[in-house]
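Help wanted!
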Amino acid sequence: MRTLKLTVAYDGTNYHGFQKQTNALTVQQVLEEKLSLLCGEKIVTAGSGRTDTGVHARGQVVSLTTSGSIPLENLLKACAGILPKDIVLWQAEEADEGFHARYSACWKRYCYRIVQNKHADPFLRNYVWQMREYLRLEVMQEAAQLLLGTHDFSFFRSAGSVQSSPVKTIYRAEWLQKEQGELEFCIEGNGFLYHMVRNIVWHLVEVGKGTKSIAAFKSEFAAGKRHFKVAPAPPQGLYLDYVGYIPHFLADIEKIRK
Amino acid sequence: MRTLKLTVAYDGTNYHGFQKQTNALTVQQVLEEKLSLLCGEKIVTAGSGRTDTGVHARGQVVSLTTSGSIPLENLLKACAGILPKDIVLWQAEEADEGFHARYSACWKRYCYRIVQNKHADPFLRNYVWQMREYLRLEVMQEAAQLLLGTHDFSFFRSAGSVQSSPVKTIYRAEWLQKEQGELEFCIEGNGFLYHMVRNIVWHLVEVGKGTKSIAAFKSEFAAGKRHFKVAPAPPQGLYLDYVGYIPHFLADIEKIRK
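Answered by r_m:
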């Protein structure tokens, strides 16, 4: 059996998220259907994590095992032909036996795009959070720094969370000023709770608008309790950007240690 | 009666072009429905020109007359609320009596976006022509210069053209190198034949790929005969960017002359 690691980009606009569901079209379902055709057997995939309806991915990672012998180059070419245009297979690699897109993942990067513009741009409606308000970048940057390190992120957890420890480590939380009034928030960490990034963005935007002080943000976050009243930032601004795995040689060292 | 000049941007992906049809959803139909609601009377609009299915506009101009008294500021705000998110009213102005989006237009600018990338980008699928081939910008630029001035553009006319003179004047025809492998072709002229911009782009791309020489391009164009074998460049790369009208004071001078 071969184990494959696929890197997939998708426009989430027309899907009910990544993960398979019984009664709604999802990215995973489409992928499995097409991969099954190409591999000549029923393919079951694992994704690095879910993404919600309307959320996008530039670098979702998917793992699978197959007894099929299709060369990776052919798989890439064939996928370009039979996948719908809003799902693209970027990369296909042979992986070590036991590699699992979710369980083997070490860290992830999410990005969130905001455009401050007077008039809504019809071409951005599915790809960024558009707002008329002016956001103060400096204070959002300052508040974002408070997220760095290991903390209880319960405050940014939405109801409906799968049970998992609310303690996560954030390596990077940074706003980037892009062209034409666009801001991009990049956050990297070893794990994320349900709606965590979108809830963080919502609160940082409150800080940027001046409706919440950095002190209030800090104390709410430190309290470590789930907040019921906030709406997460809208899904279309969010991108699962990259999923990081432990390099082979480090994994080998870990095996030797054990 | 008031005459209004509206500037509209739209994502043409989900419409059968701009112009009203009896059995397909078009941008003009949606605009007229919503404007009729806001003006309290049946509104009939004129657009500066048609755009095909999948073609976009950043600056389509629409004119209408109304006996309604809705202030322009309110019209803008209300449209932001009731238009679908893929159609945006950028600007609303009072215009002189007799102003007509099509007949009063002096010139137009179209832009065509091409992205050269190895893997298709799912986020660009509806907004650019994506191709794996590398295009030589210098030769496309050189060929584009041949379009400048007043010529018979029959060679770039598709079948199905509305009858109009094939002689048009082109003021600008220029390729711009943008970020991340993107090229944008900008063309400005006093009029355009059916599919003219997309046919021009198709031929310039042939030149850029090296499958057609500049000399061949030049002689085909000079022959002034419609070419049956070419497919126009795909619609999603094309944007109606700007429509130019004669300024008021010049129009007044013309009236005095008459």
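OP: Thanks! One thing I noticed: Residues 196-209 of chain A form the longest helix (14 residues).
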